[in-house]
Design goal:
2 copies of one chain form a homodimer. Chain A is α+β, with helices and mostly antiparallel strands. Helices cover 34% and strands 24% of the residues of chain A. Chain A folds into 2 domains: 125 residues, Creatine Amidinohydrolase, Chain A, domain 1 (3-Layer(aba) Sandwich); 221 residues, Creatine Amidinohydrolase (Alpha-Beta Complex), CATH 3.90.230.10. In chain A, the strands form 5 sheets. A 6-stranded mixed β-sheet of chain A has the order 4-3-2-1-5-6, with helices on both faces.
């Protein structure tokens, strides 16, 4: 906020609100000034918010009740305190809310200004909270480590029981979701993907009515939310009998996955980690079959910073730091035929990475 | 679009994309012009999108593959076709995306303009698709009716088995979620609320570690997603022994709920339906204990139009129409003591409403 010359920052993106305040409700905005953090919530959330924040060790956020809307309360506070440069989260605040807040802050200032009348201004900002969130603190790492171990046990213990010919993808997904809950997760982190046969070539297939058959490749991509934090794992198997073509794809992706893991260390560029996977697949003639990025950050959100992907003008390369946690998940997809994806979750350490998920690359 | 003088509309809100195109993926934007609808998706979704849209009866959306980003493809299409007034969904598009699209559309036009050089302009629009979505067509009504009946069976058959003293709120919620899935839902529509004892006075409590005890009021608020559509139901019970104070609250809310249902008919104002509930609670001296709106629309989203609430400058009253589906859910909350909420889902018909959920007001 000091760097951006801001007197205040309106934090409206929920995971950012939760990260800064500890409040996990589905409404509320945080008004952060240089000396205070206030959660503005309406009637429905005031009691829950006070209980949640008052019980938080080291918490310093106070609760402001919005008698009308959150934004009216925010505008009243900003005006009464004479705040001039007010940051908003440009990646998350909708145009409508921005325009309404701007108009409310301008208020009578919309009539011709006298010289020297200060007009509050909304300043679009990017990634102020996200950059802090990308580096996990020890308590967050402990939660993510525990979550990854629990998810790994689901993969090792439950998957071999669940993935059987004759079951539909949806049945497999439901059994997998139940195993995720039994493992202590609050809920699956996303709609579980069970993509069998030709469906395995759809990177974002869902689980449908197709029945698993002998010889099918099956992509199993599932995750869980544990104490608010998301972990995410993918393994691909082939139901017997195996084929040479599947083994070729599998070997290529496994090698790309290992190459990307080997490229992770403090200071490595996100694009270099991605390139390590991509280059390996190129050697197999499979570069064009890998159409997504190599990974994404994990935390309060399933997809957060850093993004491990090709260089892009909108998303320049950046160096990863100790404490970042992200997925490494190369894949290849041959439309109509087969797909393979292998995904683990890693923590960046000084000279490499700590693979938080502990699952054999080849499940069986 | 004709009314707003638009040459094109960028539909980016996912439920709106799904409603218009049938595509339910987690990325993609729809570029709607007066004669065409094109879904712009990246590599990962192209195959799935083509399969989904080509198999859709009556569908007219074609798929455009975004080789770089969705927005670059959208800008290229808009520029090559000379579109001038391009609507965006102001309630959903973030400031950052708006600013980037604006800059990309202006392109070299940011240098001094020659007279007559047309500059494409992004026009913030509100509720263009949402107003259409608020009125359900017969196929949607059939899905919502089926979903409400399935959710009702969960309430009638499973709840009495599940809600027992000694269990924690979280255990009750997990059992309820399992029953919702067994009833054929894709997933719960939101984090199930099981709020017992003093927690019942928190309108947005979640299910926690508190154990249900004799004499507890218990608010049970749960929902399911069925074939993409959301239904939502709340009942409040008191574990024996019952108390006079609970019966008083329960009677007040049940009467408010009945009064609101009686106020629903084609042409009724949303504010009048809300007022019917609020006025009843006022007679019980409980108006101040009812801090939320009376209901919300149901459809592809859990909370959509219409909003059944008090009049508000930001959300003026509007008449409800035949085919709208929404919740009716008055509640009272006495902090530290007890809360009661009763919620059903209704379909507006000409002279009244059809209550889609079929569950006794008093579960036992």
């Amino acid at each position: 906020m000091v760097d951006a010359g801001l007197d205040a920052l309106i934090v409206s993106h929920r995971p950012n609100v939760q990260y800064l305040s500890g409040f996990a409700g589905s409404a509320g905005a945080l008004l952060v000034t240089r000396d205070a953090s206030r959660l503005v919530v309406d009637f429905r959330y005031v009691t829950a918010a006070r209980e949640m924040l008052e019980g938080r060790p080291g918490g310093s956020t106070t609760v402001e009740r919005a008698d009308r809307s959150e934004d009216e309360t925010i505008v009243l506070l900003l005006k009464s305190e004479g705040r001039q440069r007010i940051g908003i989260e440009a990646a998350w605040m909708p145009v409508l809310r921005f325009n309404r807040l701007s108009a409310a802050l301008a208020g009578e200032a919309r009539t011709p200004l006298h010289a020297g009348t200060p007009v509050p201004v909304l300043v679009p900002t990017e990634r102020i909270v996200e950059r802090v969130r990308a580096v996990k603190d020890p308590a967050e790492i402990a939660v993510l480590r525990e979550a990854a171990e629990r998810l790994s046990r689901v993969a090792v213990e439950a998957l071999p029981q669940i993935v059987e010919p004759g079951r539909t993808e949806a049945e497999v997904a439901a059994a997998l979701d139940a195993a995720v809950r039994e493992a202590g997760f609050n809920r699956p982190a996303f709609d579980t993907i069970v993509a069998s046969g030709p469906n395995s070539a759809l990177p974002h297939a869902r689980a449908g009515g197709r029945r698993l058959a002998p010889g099918d490749p099956v992509v199993l991509d599932f995750g869980g939310v544990y104490d608010g934090y998301c972990v995410d794992l993918t393994r691909t198997v082939q139901l017997p009998p195996t084929t040479g073509e599947f083994r070729r794809l599998f070997a290529a992706v496994a090698e790309a996955h290992a190459a990307a893991l080997a490229a992770v260390r403090a200071g490595a560029l996100t694009t270099d980690i991605d390139h390590a996977a991509r280059q390996t697949l190129e050697r197999y003639g499979l570069a064009a079959a890998f159409g997504h990025g190599t990974g994404h950050g994990l935390g309060l959100e399933l997809h957060e910073e850093p993004r491990i992907s090709k260089s892009d003008p909108a998303r320049p390369a950046e160096a990863v730091s100790v404490g970042m946690v992200f997925t490494v998940e190369p894949g290849v997809y041959l439309p109509g035929t087969a797909g393979v994806r292998i995904e683990d979750d890693v923590l960046v350490v000084e000279n490499g990475c700590d693979v938080l998920t502990k699952v054999p690359i080849a499940l069986w």
